[in-house]
Every structure is written in structure tokens, then in C-alpha cells.
From TrEMBL:
The keyword Transport applies. The keyword Lipid biosynthesis does not apply. CDD domains: MFS_HMIT_like (cd17360). It holds the Pfam family Sugar_tr. Keywords: Membrane, Transmembrane, Transmembrane helix, Transport. This is Major facilitator superfamily (MFS) profile domain-containing protein. It is a multi-pass membrane protein. Residues 31-542 form the Major facilitator superfamily (MFS) profile domain. GO terms for molecular function: myo-inositol:proton symporter activity. It is found in: Membrane. One of its GO terms (cellular component) is membrane. The lineage of its organism: Eukaryota, Viridiplantae, Streptophyta, Embryophyta, Tracheophyta. SUPFAM superfamilies: MFS general substrate transporter. InterPro entries: MFS_dom, MFS_sugar_transport-like, MFS_trans_sf, Myo-inositol_Transporter, Sugar/inositol_transpt, Sugar_transporter_CS.
Length: 573
């Protein structure tokens, strides 16, 4: 059933039903995959900066020495995405889902080329802002387009293709990062090649129609019908048209109270109890998704691997590729189970796994820090004019280990015979790095626990991806009344990107202030709070027509624990 249809609740849906339906009607999958390239763009931008940043730091010394500048380069794409998500809902409602996606493609392509030819860090930041604008618009418009062109019985699985392409884009970015590590332009190729999928989607979308729901709303009934005829069997098209007619007429009847401009629609949305309750759920899952710490892994994965003791850029990128691949696997799992076990259950189980993995990572990094190699006092003091100044002035040099050296802003040159044996603490300069005959560490220390950190990063991704990775976007494509879907989805997407900005803009600073162990433990504590909010505020929307979702929110939702105690009271606080 197309969004807004007045048809009874569909039967229990499984991924196999999606396969059968799209096999019979491949046009549905063509629509979903073409729009889903927006998810690929989203994912590519998320992943590519983690590897590119390693080489940007090598080309620009000021970036390497200033943590805040690294965070700025990473997070300005997120800042741009906040603006893109904020206006994306309005543009998609006013000009159509298709045009919104096309505008995003242009922004993404231009931004990628600006970064590729950037002569200075400030130009990279400008390109990141442009890319972010496109990604922000796509983040809510692409799932919306897919949702409105999908039968209800397979809607969750099809919207999940967007999530799959997000993780696929992340995996692709790591492959491309590895491919260009030996080239002379390294990070310029990594960032610039992102223009290719943007131009591909632009070409594909030009040949596809607008959302049938949006067309009908614009009184283009014949165009809407022609699209429905490609999606549904002939004997169901009339029912779908009648459903659209009833839904649109109901919307128009309410328009005088809603208003036509953005401010009036916002006021109307926030004064509507169903929309407010939908926003409670939609914003909750989007904020919880980001504060699970996922983008500390996606944006800084190679850096985290270096924190764990793998100093080589190539090694860090290769190990990060494993976590990205697991993310793609998790998205496939989500597509299989999201319509079988439901959105709510997948998210709750996912959050439990995330919490356990974050606590485990915290313990691993704590152990790694306490067992870091000692500083060899004799060797360190015997090298004139190169010894770390903080080490020279410390009253207790015997207490220093590699971690103490790095926290003081210096570099650690490992023992040439065994990197776990005492090494030297030197000034953090290119000269000292080149002089070091062992392995040069400046982000993390040699650690026998390093492989465990990579293992639990993998478990973390496997816990996150099937639930919190894709399901929040599905919930936000289903939870709002149709007339407020663009506004509701936009507000939720903005909350997602604001949370993303906070996480990406503070992660490196947090690791300096709290250490890797303290930072992961902090995220674990926040996830406990997120689990509680999801349990109390987010209802199940699996396989429910939009009308039934509205009725559920109107009467109110409460979890079974409260429902059993207060049957006669409203189910939604």
C-alpha cells in the first residue's frame, strides 16, 4: 500500500516477501535503489574522511598539531548536514522528493571537487560544508521517496535498502582509501572521487518519476496513476487511487488550520498531539543513534585503531575496513529481520549489545594504558636536544610510560628489538620521527591488548548496524501523519545531525581529557539512558498502515509494563 492508503493492516511481512514482490515488479527496486544512492553518498562521506584525515595531517602540519582543526574538518560536513536536513523537508514538500534529491546531488558533486583541489585546510572545510548540505537533504528525502513508492507489506525492507547503501558507501570509502594510499595525491583522490556516485544518481533520477503521493497531492492524478500501475497489480490500482484520494482530501480539509508557509506548518505540527508524540519517538531514536558513539568509529576508525597501538596508516585503514564490512553485513541482517521481529525490538536488543561492547572497549583501553611500555631513561636522556621537554622537567621520570609521553604532547620511539620493551620519549617533530629506528607512535602506544580493541569494535558494529543503524530512519518514515511527514522527518533528521555534530566535534578532545577508556565508558552510560527513552517512548510500527499509526498515537502509547497496570488510562505520557 502506498503511504496514506486506507487499506486494512497488511499480513505479517518478511524479507522473502520483498524479494518476491520486487522480482515480479522490478520497477519497485529500481526506484528504491536509484533513490538509495543518496544513502551511498551519505555513507561514503561518513567513511572517507576517517582515512583521508590521516594523510591531510601529513600534508598540513597545522592540522596534525591541532586537534580542534582535525575535529573541524570532520565535523563541518555534519554542520552542513544540519542545514541540509533543516531545509530538506520543506524543499521536498514544496518542490517534490525528486527535485530535492537532484539538488543534493549537485551540492555533493561540487563539494567533492572543491575538496579534491583544496590548496589549504580552510578550503577543505568549505568543501565539507557543501557536501554536508547535500548529505543532510538526502538523509531524510531518500527514505521518504522510497517509503512513498513502496507497498506497506515490504516498506520496511525497501527503506532498509537505503541503510544498506549507507553501510555499503562506508565500506566502499575504506576500499578507495586503501587503493589511493600509494598515490601522490592520496586524500585528494579519496575525497574527489565522491563526485562520481552523485553524478550517477543525478542521471538515474532524471529518468525516474516523482513520488506518486506527492504528485497526487499536486493534482497530477494521471501521473500518479501511471506510476502506481508500474508498482501494483492492475486489480489493486483503483484501490490505491481511492486511498490516495481520501487521504489527500482529508489533508486539504485541514489546511486552513495548518497554513502554507514553514513557520505555520511548524506551529501546526507542534500543536498537533499526534505529531508531537511522533516526534517524541522519532527524535528519541535519532539522538540515541548518534550518542551510541557510532560516528566516533565511522569518522575516526583508523585513529581509534592507532589508539589501540597500530601505528601504520595502511594497517589502521586495513583493520578499519573490517569494521566497515561488518557494518554492511549488519545492514543485510536488518533487512531480513526488520519486518519479522519489528522496529522496537531490534533497537532495544541492539542497544544492549552496544552498551556491553562500549564497556568492554573501555576496560580494554584502560588495561592497554596501564601496561604501556616504560620510557627508557638512559636512552631518552642520551639524545641531546631531542628529549621531550615535559619529560626532562618531570620530578618522577621513572613513573613515565608511553602513554605519559603521548599525553605530554610528545612522540614515543619504540624499542627496535621489541616494541613492548622500554623506548624513548622525544619531541613530536618530523625530524625525530625520521630519526626513530623503531616504530614511531604519536596517537597510541604499543599494546598486547590492541587486537582485542579491534575485535570489540567489530562486535560493536555488529550490535549497532542491524538495529540502531537502520531502524531509526524506518521509524521516522512511518511515525508521522502524511501532511506533516516532511516537517517531522526534517526535525528528526536535524536532531540526528546536531547530535552527530556534538559527537564528531568533541571526540578527539574527549580522548585527550578522559582518555580512550573514559570516553568509551561515557558513551556507554549515555546509551543506558538512550535505551530507557526508547523503551518508554517508541511504539512498534511494523506493517501498520499510516492510519493505524495515527490512531495509536492519538489514543496514546505506553509499554506493556505500564499498560498492564493502568488499562483505562492513556497509553502515551
Amino acid at each position: 500500500m502506498v503511504e496514506g492508503g486506507n487499506i486494512s493492516k497488511p499480513d505479517k511481512t518478511e524479507f522473502t516477501e520483498c524479494w518476491k514482490t520486487t522480482w515480479k515488479t522490478p520497477y519497485i527496486m529500481r526506484l528504491a535503489l536509484s533513490a538509495g544512492i543518496g544513502g551511498l553518498l551519505f555513507g561514503y562521506d561518513t567513511g572517507v574522511i576517517s582515512g583521508a584525515l590521516l594523510y591531510i595531517r601529513e600534508d598540513f602540519e597545522q592540522v596534525d598539531r591541532k586537534t580542534w582543526l582535525q575535529e573541524l574538518i570532520v565535523s563541518m560536513a555534519v554542520a552542513g548536514a544540519i542545514g541540509g536536513a533543516a531545509i530538506g523537508g520543506w524543499i521536498s514538500d514544496r518542490f517534490g522528493r525528486k527535485r530535492s534529491i537532484l539538488i543534493a546531488d549537485v551540492l555533493f558533486a561540487v563539494g567533492a571537487l572543491v575538496m579534491a583541489f583544496a590548496p589549504a585546510p580552510v578550503v577543505i572545510i568549505l568543501g565539507r560544508i557543501l557536501v554536508g548540505l547535500g548529505v543532510g537533504m538526502t538523509s531524510m528525502t531518500a527514505p521518504l521517496y522510497i517509503s512513498e513508492a513502496s507497498p506497506a507489506r515490504i516498506r520496511g525492507a525497501l527503506v532498509s535498502t537505503n541503510g544498506l547503501l549507507i553501510t555499503g558507501g562506508q565500506f566502499l570509502s575504506y576500499l578507495i582509501n586503501l587503493a589511493f594510499t600509494k598515490t601522490s595525491w592520496t586524500w585528494r583522490w579519496m575525497l574527489g572521487i565522491a563526485a562520481v556516485p552523485a553524478l550517477l544518481q543525478l542521471i538515474l533520477m532524471l529518468s525516474l518519476p516523482e513520488s506518486p503521493r506527492w504528485l497526487y497531492r499536486q493534482n497530477k492524478e494521471e501521473e500518479a496513476r501511471s506510476i502506481l500501475e508500474k508498482i501494483f497489480p492492475a486489480n489493486e490500482v483503483d484501490d490505491e487511487m481511492n486511498a490516495l484520494k481520501l487521504s489527500v482530501e482529508a489533508e486539504k480539509a485541514d489546511e486552513h488550520a495548518i497554513g502554507d508557509n514553514l513557520i505555520q506548518k511548524l506551529k501546526g505540527a507542534l500543536s498537533n498531539v499526534v505529531v508531537r508524540r511522533g516526534l517524541y519517538a522519532g527524535i528519541t531514536v535519532q539522538v540515541a543513534q548518534q550518542f551510541s558513539g557510532i560516528n566516533t568509529v565511522m569518522y575516526y576508525s583508523p585513529t581509534i585503531v592507532q589508539f589501540a597501538g597500530f601505528a601504520s596508516n595502511e594497517t589502521a585503514l586495513a583493520l578499519s575496513l573490517i569494521t566497515s564490512g561488518l557494518n554492511a553485513v549488519g545492514s543485510i541482517v536488518s533487512m531480513v529481520f526488520v519486518d519479522r521481529y519489528g522496529r522496537r525490538r531490534l533497537m532495544l536488543v541492539s542497544m544492549v549489545g552496544i552498551i556491553l561492547c562500549l564497556v568492554s572497549l573501555s576496560i580494554i583501553f584502560l588495561e592497554a594504558a596501564s601496561h604501556a611500555p616504560k620510557v627508557n631513561q638512559l636512552d631518552t636522556n642520551s639524545i641531546p636536544n631531542t628529549t621531550c621537554r615535559s619529560y626532562i622537567s618531570t620530578p618522577k621520570p621513572s613513573s613515565w610510560n608511553c602513554m605519559s609521553c603521548l599525553k605530554a604532547g610528545c612522540g614515543f620511539c619504540s624499542n627496535t628489538a621489541n616494541e613492548y620493551s622500554p623506548g624513548t620519549c622525544l619531541e613530536l617533530t618530523t625530524k625525530q620521527r625520521d630519526w626513530c629506528r623503531g616504530t614511531w607512535f604519536k596517537d597510541g602506544c604499543p599494546s598486547e591488548f590492541g587486537f582485542l580493541a579491534v575485535v570489540f569494535l567489530g562486535f560493536y558494529i555488529l550490535s549497532y548496524s542491524p538495529g540502531m543503524g537502520t531502524v531509526p530512519w524506518i521509524v521516522n518514515s512511518e511515525i508521522y501523519p502524511l501532511r506533516y511527514r516532511g516537517i517531522g522527518g526534517g526535525l528528526a533528521a536535524v536532531s540526528n545531525w546536531i547530535s552527530n555534530l556534538i559527537v564528531s566535534l568533541t571526540f578527539l578532545s574527549l580522548t585527550k581529557a578522559l582518555g580512550s577508556a573514559g570516553t568509551f565508558f561515557l558513551f556507554g552510560g549515555v546509551c543506558v539512558i538512550g535505551f530507557s527513552f526508547i523503551y518508554w517512548l517508541v511504539p512498534e510500527t511494523k506493517g501498520m498502515p499510516i492510519e493505524e499509526v495515527e490512531k495509536m498515537l492519538e489514543s496514546g502509547y505506553k509499554p506493556k509494563l505500564l499498560r498492564a497496570k493502568s488499562k483505562d488510562k492513556t497509553q502515551f505520557a
